[in-house]
Amino acid sequence: MEHSGGFYSSVYEPNGHAAWADNQQHQDKETADNLRRKIKYFFMNPCEKYKARGRKPWKLMLQIIKIAIITIQLVSFGLSNQMVVTFKEENLMTFKHLFLKDYVDGRGDSYAVYRQDEVYEHISYIVDKYSRLRNITVGNHAYEKKGDTYSPLSLCQEFYRNGSISPANETFDIDAQIETECLEIVPVFPMGSTTEDDLLNFVVDFKRLLNVKIKFTLKAINLQTVRNRELPNCYDFDVTITFNNQAHSGRIKVDLDNDVDINECRDWKVIGASPKNIYYPLLFDCLIIVTCITSLALCTRSVLNGIRLQFEYTDFCLVRQGKKVPWSDRLEFLNGWYILIIASDTLTIIGSILKIEIQTKILTSYDVCSIFLGTGTMLVWIGVIRYMGYFKKYNILILTLRAAFPNVVRFIGCAGIIYLGYCFCGWIVLGPYHEKFRTLNTVSECLFSLINGDDMYPTFKYMKQKSYLVWLFSRVYLYTFVSLFIYMILSLFITLITDTYDTIKQQQQEGSPVSELHCFMSECKDLPTSGRYRVEGESGSFTCCFPRCKDSRERLSSESIDSEP
């Protein structure tokens, strides 16, 4: 009892209370130092982390490997896609020379007919060349077959249901309902009198005519892919030749277009290339998918660790210091580079899966696959800037871009309003008199080129002078736009970024912390090589892969220290 009484008396004595307060203060300081050390370690670069804990920079090495193999994949797919695009474009040009009478390269929108007899001649020419395709083409083109019969050529005309037009009397009576009349012609060898009689029965009322469309399907095989260890594709070309008379201006524009459908050939045999060589690209794509999944898992784990540390820092400031952490400091823990890598990995995985399906002829969506692979590769290369930021001279550029980004977005929003105003004004006023202002899309492209100093003289020169008032307005419009955007808005934009650069440079030279988080973290003076960052029992990089084991080991260590007498 005397012992216990002496114990209680020592607790309530002033010296005992002071000792308890000193102990509590020491624990708070130790907790704060540990948190500073954890935060400082979180913001270290891979080399510093390796010095601090001997942790291997797996993410850095993985990103370097990933950049190399993803770039190789993209180049391989780009070359394959280039052959597909070339085959499509060359076939389109071939069809124009085969089926359009007196066609010359580069005519484009200028290819048209102006007389009624020319319309009938061109239609007869198309049908004749289609019927004799096997004897005139130098390619491996063939008709589409459905069963034992060939698919017919479809000759259709669209016209107003009823109409009476008299320009001389300035009167008209039109039924706006559109009717379609079609004629099907099956290719026969040689072209017989039946086909000729059908064409003679095809009569066009040009006053009511809207358009004449000739549709047929041809098949071909792209054999050039064999050289790149890819199985050839079978192509279906849905060709459409349109005689457009919707304007009724006396000029019927003639256009040929085709829709391409890529299919797996039913039966194939390749001599001189083993199946192993053909399926090597598939194994390479699977390797890329595994690499991206690993990178995705590591970066996701790092993001979650940052969020967890952000909550720990927020709770510490709220409980121990009684203040809330600003959002700017909270977002410091959310590494935007990891988000970028996660997005690139996701896009690359999807693109690689689509590429595998294209190579195995399950899908033929080259455009969708190109978007995923191209965007993923772009983000991967942009992510390299993160590692460039570890060098002081490159880091100031990254800090400037990040600091100036909010102001740049607000500035572009304000400038964009003025830009849209000029777009709408130019479209409605100058559109009828200038080719570059016919649509909103071309207006925007023209004005953006003017901002960059491109195509200025032709924009001024090719303005039609049929209306002096509009011509005078165009001068005022173009001069004010160029002066406003080049001499004022663009200069202010450059000044905005320059001021941010000077501010960041001055802060780096003075070495002053730029936020409360940096002030808190700067109190930790431990160097990476001091050994203070190591966790007892940590070996290599296994603890970084198993944080739960690390946490439990830390708890056991602290419990053993507390249990000591």
UniProtKB/TrEMBL annotation:
Keywords: Cell membrane, Disulfide bond, Endosome, Ion channel, Ion transport, Membrane, Transmembrane, Transmembrane helix, Transport
Membrane topology term: Multi-pass membrane protein
Superkingdom of this protein's organism: Eukaryota
Ranges annotated as spanning the membrane: 278-298, 336-356, 368-388, 408-430, 476-497
Cell compartments where the protein resides: Cell membrane; Endosome membrane
Annotated InterPro entries: MCLN_ECD, Mucolipin, PKD1_2_channel
Catalytic activity: Ca(2+)(in) = Ca(2+)(out)
Domain Mucolipin extracytosolic, residue spans: 84-266
One GO location term (cellular component): plasma membrane
Polycystin cation channel PKD1/PKD2 domain ranges (all copies): 367-504
Gene Ontology MF term list: NAADP-sensitive calcium-release channel activity
Gene3D superfamilies: 1.10.287.70
PANTHER family: MUCOLIPIN, MUCOLIPIN-3
Protein name as it appears in the record: Mucolipin-3 isoform X2
Species, as recorded: Salmo salar (Atlantic salmon)
Gene name of this polypeptide: mcoln3b
